[in-house]
Specification:
Number of domains: 1
Number of strands: 6
CATH class: Alpha Beta
Order of helices and strands: HEEHEEHEEH
Structural class: alpha+beta
Number of helices: 4
Shape: globular
CATH topology: Cytidine Deaminase, domain 2
Helix content: 25-40%
CATH architecture: 3-Layer(aba) Sandwich
Bound molecules: tetrahydrodeoxyuridine
Strand content: 25-35%
Largest sheet: 6 strands, mixed
Radius of gyration: 15 Å
């Protein structure tokens, strides 16, 4: 699948976000090594801190659909829903710190330095990065080796 196609899945997923408080819809699409796609969107809550990010929703869906170990690539997109019903926005959405940590966990499971394509709502700008770039010196399973 091309990066454009994966970003299109992320932008479509954002249309199903539940984001009445921020009015900022985020979608995430995760491609498997076999070309399957799992998606998620942010889901907010009146108790603001209980909101769930699109990336975590998509990782949960990916675990169910094909397993974290088969994740190949991730795309994230965010913005508002335009008058034509499509996701819109100029600014590229880069994953929050918590989501980077969740993606790092999936990277450890998959054994791949996962690529995360950040894009704007319009889908016109894409910025690919490896998770090791987005979260250098991240905390992972190796950091737990001295546990009792
Ligand atoms: N959000 C995500 O879904 N992913 C991110 O990586 C950044 C932020 C959501 C959380 C909240 O519902 C909205 O965007 C505004 O912060």
């Amino acid at each position: 699948m091309s990066p454009d196609d994966l970003v299109r899945h992320a932008r479509d997923a954002a249309l199903s976000a539940y984001a009445p408080y921020s009015r900022f819809s985020v979608g995430c699409a995760i491609e498997s090594v076999d070309g399957e796609v799992a998606v998620g969107a942010n889901m907010e809550n009146a108790c603001y801190r209980l909101g769930v990010c699109a990336e975590v929703a998509a990782l949960t869906a990916a675990q169910q659909a094909f397993g974290l170990e088969r994740i190949a690539r991730i795309a994230v997109s965010g913005g508002h829903i335009g008058s034509d019903g499509a996701l819109a926005g100029k600014a590229v959405v880069t994953s929050c710190g918590g989501c980077r940590q969740s993606i790092l966990e999936a990277a450890h499971v998959s054994g791949r330095d996962l690529e995360v394509i950040a894009s704007n709502g319009d889908g016109t700008t894409m910025r690919p990065h490896r998770i090791s770039e987005l979260l250098p010196e991240g905390f992972g399973p190796a950091n737990l080796k001295d546990a009792g």
